[in-house]
Design goal:
Chain lengths: 265, 229, 637
């Protein structure tokens, strides 16, 4: 078979020519103390190949040229790994699609004439700083409450000293893949941070390195999570559905187990 | 004691209490259904009456009864506390929120379902438990059943409540295992199967009673006579 | 100014251990009396903050992010090198040292590189102990792969997310110290100036990005770990906020800038799709192991790739480099791709891309094998382009990815300003003119965990510090100056957005200071950049106020610095009349079009001294000596 046959019949879609016009309803809030409200914007000439955040960039250029303040939103790597971006798009954390952060959503997921509602993450422990930017430092405070292994720099044995089953290591990785974006909290009807906390507890509980501190870690992290004001898990698994890294709620079961073991023994 | 209090104060603690009480209530449902199925004995309620008397006279059962009410109270109270805390965790609501795309219906209506079940329990206890055990009545348990299930509205309410119970258990039963950390990929199928028995077979079993008595089983005089002590 | 790199004497294998012995120590009880500011909390900054905090110093760490976990180190995919020789394929510290010096095209310091190779093994141990889930084999031991053309398997990796896992490891060490109270973390703070008192770096002025207030922080030493400056090109694989402001402002306060023109271009990025493109996304170059690169033999061929017959395809890398084929080094692959596009052979709607075709591999190995090897990359590509690489060839194009240049530092990682240390990508040190794959993570963590914590103690123990408070007039002066600059930016109220200027600068940089540079092009850039800069200061429009969270203002300050840095990059590139590593001068190439070094004239580090806005920067040279790794010409024929 000639090589070229391999691709015969498939259409190599170049930058698509269909252009969309959208109505955006975006939450605008000056600062933490402002009540905030929705503003409506029309945006035209949206290319389906744009990323969602690029669409907002284009909107912002329009706003600046008109002398308005651009919409503030958190973003950085735009590759779905830094966890900075996080918008509630049409009622879905990170917008349409599964296993993607907002920056990985492209405008081809929308249709000409759509009305798109864009809100910040809503949760008591994630207060809005400005427009669509929220303060997620509550996550750092939870991590601070034992989300680590207390190894001193330079005090580690050889990397190969403790073999770890590939199966276990892979499972630990699945949990460690969390990017700390907060979509779990945003998607949860209770604003619960259990998937976030579970990812860290599970990651370290699976590995021998995390063993010695596992009890204190489970107790302290859960305590801090409660103190921050996150809601309770009611096992409806919206967190797993919206997690850009598709972290399984099986890790929440492990967190519960770790916590019970720590409390009871 | 302090550690118990701190356990309950934690979010997981309250959920564990809900799980354990919930599972205990599920076990009670099994016992209750088995007992109720004696109503099908077609002996005018004789066997059912004997069973009722045994229950009342057994001290172990009386103790369990107390635990049962305590569980119910613990389950409902914890649910309420958790629910209030969860509402507070999101002071500003979303303008658009598509939870329906991310979570099953059963998991989204637990509080609503729980409230309906609570209402049902009040009616249920008022109809049977209170006259039989508190205020006293000249009727036997069987006679009461026959009488109550002759009312179509009463039957309809029962059936509705049982559908709600089914949904409640569809989420609650597996949820309890998740909360207790007893979840494992390998045994997921077993849990799913057991859960099916609890959320479908059990409510269906209960539902068979009003249906049977309303449509197929008019009371017979002999049954009424036999029932009187 | 005489540049003293302070490379310790003695045989290269003993330099670091001898030096460590001779470094002065701070009494353990006194450590908490010393305050160290660490600016930037990516791999280098987080690991340094954590380690310094653990040693007992009073550490204040700053980031313009809300959390240390957002730093762009997180996006590194490939892996981290260490000569553990777990693969038993003949690796050693010596070999890694050699490869790194050679890979850097003999423009790095031997002493530094050897030390880097020497401590890299400990990094792996440290990370494993922190719970970093490196890939393992079925026996449960750490797995290695060969990466970036290395002939040994020395790269440790964690799926395609090695940077993420290492950063989360360093972040966990950092939060542990925050928990212990030794490190205080200041989120959403952007360093805008360095404060020097009595010739010593004594603090910073940082803008609180939430309320816009200028805050002064006093210290005994300042560490910059603020990453690279690829975003001078606007389109790069760096994160949107990655910037050069901290190092540039330190440069303007007297820190010399080393080898600013050494930038690395990565060949396998997803190309631009339109004018709105905000950044570029890198795909691991491992793709080239199984993908074949080609363009049509006809210029401007708009046929879909499936309709271009085999006879009309030019597999140009295989044609030009029969031995290495598609696996030629990054810089070569990148340059050839740009050439093809410049000549009109580019593919896709923009014509700025070449095909990377997996159909042969899929036929040979089966779809499942390819899926196992590159599944996540294929998914990522499809997510962005809506094209399925299993069905149609990928389109790729080179993009700026890493800057080897940075602030000049000595062996102790101290800049030319006493008490100012620079670590990670922000310094110029270990990669010479070209960085090897999987070496960036290695250097960041080596600096932060195992080098800086030793060397900074020597400075603190041997230096006298005058008591200073943040109301000192130098602090007040710096606050006033930075305030004046931000107020100026919000008051211009012109017609063009910051991004429009940035894009324009990026275009100049890419066209003239990019992959292939020429005397004429660089001179043109040196004319265009100052023109654009002066237009910027007259025509830029920054909305909002300075006393508020103001993203446009943040960007404006960074772009203002890129103009100046971009100019220095062009100046450095113009002066370096040779081709080496990532720096390719069209005038200096072999008959086959390969980079031609000029060791006789340019075997030195070019360190530039800032002399004020009106004067041109002055070049200082640090000669490089190669006693152990003797220079040779690269050949991939």
């Amino acid at each position: 078979m000639q090589k070229s046959d391999f691709y015969r019949g498939t259409i190599h879609s170049l930058a698509s020519s269909t252009i969309m016009n959208l109505t955006l309803k975006i939450w605008r809030q000056r600062n933490r103390d402002d009540a905030g409200k929705f503003a409506t914007y029309q945006i035209s000439n949206v290319s389906p190949d744009m990323s969602f955040l690029e669409m907002l960039d284009v909107l912002n250029v329009d706003l600046i040229k008109k002398g308005d303040e651009p919409v503030a939103f958190d973003h950085d790597c735009r590759e779905g790994i830094c966890g900075s971006c996080g918008l509630m798009v049409d009622g879905r954390a990170h917008g349409p699609g599964r296993g993607v952060a907002t920056c990985q959503v492209h405008m081809r997921s929308f249709r000409d004439g759509d009305v798109v509602v864009i809100e910040p993450w809503r949760a008591g422990p994630f207060p809005v700083i400005k427009d669509l930017i929220v303060d997620r430092t509550s996550f750092d405070r939870i991590m601070q409450a034992g989300g680590y292994v207390s190894v001193k720099t330079g005090g580690a044995p050889d990397g190969n000293a403790i073999p770890i089953s590939k199966h276990v290591s892979d499972e630990a990785f699945d949990a460690a893949a969390c990017i700390g974006c907060g979509a779990c909290v945003a998607a949860c009807p209770n604003s619960s941070a259990m998937l976030f906390v579970a990812a860290k507890i599970s990651h370290l509980a699976l590995l021998p390195q995390g063993g010695p501190e596992r009890k204190a870690r489970a107790l302290r992290m859960v305590e801090q999570m409660d103190k921050e004001g996150f809601g309770n898990c009611s096992n409806n698994y919206a967190c797993e559905a919206e997690c850009p890294k598709e972290i399984s709620v099986a890790h929440i079961a492990r967190l519960n187990r770790e916590f019970l073991k720590a409390k009871l023994t | 004691m302090n550690s118990l209090v701190s356990f309950y104060r934690s979010s997981i603690g309250k959920k564990v209490v809900m799980s354990l009480t919930g599972l205990f209530l599920c076990l009670f449902l099994v016992e209750h259904l088995v007992g109720n199925l004696l109503l099908f004995a077609n002996d005018g309620g004789h066997l059912y009456e004997e069973y009722s008397q045994w229950l009342v006279s057994n001290p172990v059962i009386r103790v369990i009864e107390v635990v049962l009410f305590a569980s119910l109270f613990g389950h409902a109270l914890s649910a309420l506390v958790v629910w209030i805390k969860n509402r507070r965790a999101r002071p500003v609501k979303y303008a658009k929120y598509r939870l329906d795309e991310n979570a099953e219906l059963a998991s989204r209506i637990t509080m609503l379902g729980g409230s309906v079940i609570f209402l049902f329990l009040v009616v249920h206890l008022w109809s049977f438990f209170v006259p039989l055990r508190v205020t006293g009545t000249t009727m036997t348990a069987y006679q009461l059943v026959v009488q109550k299930f002759s009312d179509p509205w009463f039957c309809a309410f029962y059936l509705f409540a049982l559908v709600v119970l089914g949904y409640h258990l569809k989420h609650g039963f597996q949820s309890a295992f998740q909360t207790l950390g007893l979840m494992h990929k390998k045994y997921q199928w077993l849990l799913g199967l057991t859960a099916f028995v609890f959320w479908f077979v059990l409510p269906a079993g209960f539902a068979s009673l009003p249906v049977y008595f309303y449509f197929f089983s008019p009371p017979t005089p002999s049954a009424v006579v036999l029932g009187v002590q | 100014m005489k540049l003293d790199a302070k490379i310790p004497d003695g045989p290269i294998q003993q330099k670091w251990s001898n030096h460590r012995f001779h470094l002065k120590l701070v009494n353990p009880a006194n450590k908490r009396r010393y305050t160290i500011l660490v600016v930037g909390t990516g791999l280098a900054g987080a690991s340094a903050s954590a380690t310094l905090g653990e040693l007992g110093y009073n550490v204040l760490a700053f980031s313009y992010h809300e959390s240390p976990r957002r730093a762009h180190s997180i996006a590194a995919q490939g892996g981290i090198n260490a000569p553990k020789n777990y693969s038993n394929d003949g690796d050693s510290v010596w070999r890694l040292f050699h490869d790194t010096v050679k890979g850097g095209d003999y423009r790095a310091r031997e002493g530094n590189v050897y030390r880097l190779a020497e401590v890299s093994g400990s990094i792996i141990d440290q990370c494993v102990a922190q719970g970093v889930p490196f890939a393992r084999d079925y026996a449960g031991y750490l797995d290695n792969r060969s990466f970036g053309g290395a002939q040994v398997a020395r790269t440790f990796y964690a799926r395609g997310q090695t940077g993420q896992q290492l950063l989360l490891g360093a972040y966990s060490a950092l939060v542990r110290q925050m928990d212990a109270g030794t490190v205080k973390f200041f989120d959403r703070r952007e360093m805008l100036d360095l404060v020097i008192i009595d010739g010593q770096a004594r603090g910073i002025v940082a803008r609180n990005m939430i309320n816009g207030i200028m805050e002064s922080y006093v210290a005994d030493a300042v560490v910059l770990a603020t990453g690279g400056y690829s975003n001078a090109f606007f389109l790069s694989t760096n994160a949107k906020a990655s910037n050069a402001t901290a190092i540039w402002r330190a440069h303007k306060k007297g820190a010399l800038f080393g080898n600013p023109c050494f930038t690395q271009i990565h060949p396998t990025c997803i190309p631009e799709s339109g004018h709105y493109q905000s950044k570029l996304t890198l795909m691991s170059e491992s793709l080239r192991n199984d993908g074949r690169i080609w363009v049509s033999k006809k210029k401007g061929d708009k046929r879909p790739p499936g309709e271009i017959p085999e006879s009309d395809r030019d597999y140009y890398l295989e044609r030009l480099y029969p031995a290495f084929g598609n696996l030629v080094p990054r810089d070569v692959a990148s340059r050839r791709a740009k050439e093809m596009c410049d000549q009109g052979y580019g593919v896709g709607s923009t014509g700025q891309a070449v095909h990377l075709d997996f159909s042969d591999s899929i036929k040979r190995l089966g779809r499942s094998v390819i899926q196992e090897r590159y599944g996540n990359l294929f998914d990522m590509y499809k997510q962005i382009t809506a094209e399925d690489p299993y069905q149609t060839p990928m389109r790729i194009y080179p993009a700026v990815h890493y800057t080897m240049g940075g602030l000049w530092v000595d062996y102790d990682l101290m800049s030319t300003i006493p008490g100012l240390y620079v670590i990670g990508e922000a310094n110029f040190s270990d990669h010479g003119a070209n960085r090897l794959g999987a070496s960036a993570l290695m250097q960041g963590l080596a600096d932060g965990y195992f080098i800086l914590p030793y060397t900074i103690g020597d400075y603190l123990a041997s230096t006298k510090f005058r008591p200073v408070k943040n109301d000192h007039r130098e602090f007040k002066k710096a606050e006033t100056e930075t305030e004046r600059m931000v107020k100026k930016l919000v008051s211009i109220n012109g017609k063009k957005t910051v991004d429009e200027f940035h894009r324009e600068l990026g275009k100049i940089m890419w066209d003239h200071v990019g992959m292939a540079r020429s005397r004429a092009g660089l001179k043109k850039a040196l004319k265009l950049i100052p023109e654009l800069k002066s237009r910027f200061w007259k025509e830029v429009k920054v909305t909002g106020t300075d006393l508020d969270l103001n993203v446009e203002l943040e960007k404006a300050g960074r772009v203002a610095d890129y103009f100046e840095l971009g100019e220095l990059m062009a100046l450095d590139a113009l002066h370096r009349e040779e081709s080496c590593g990532g720096h390719f001068r069209e005038e200096h190439q072999t008959a086959e079009g390969e980079a031609k070094r000029n060791d006789a004239r340019f075997s030195y580090v070019a360190a530039w001294e800032y002399r004020g806005p009106k004067k041109s920067a002055v070049l200082r040279r640090e000669p490089l000596k190669f006693e152990y790794a003797k220079p040779s010409q690269r050949s991939y024929k």
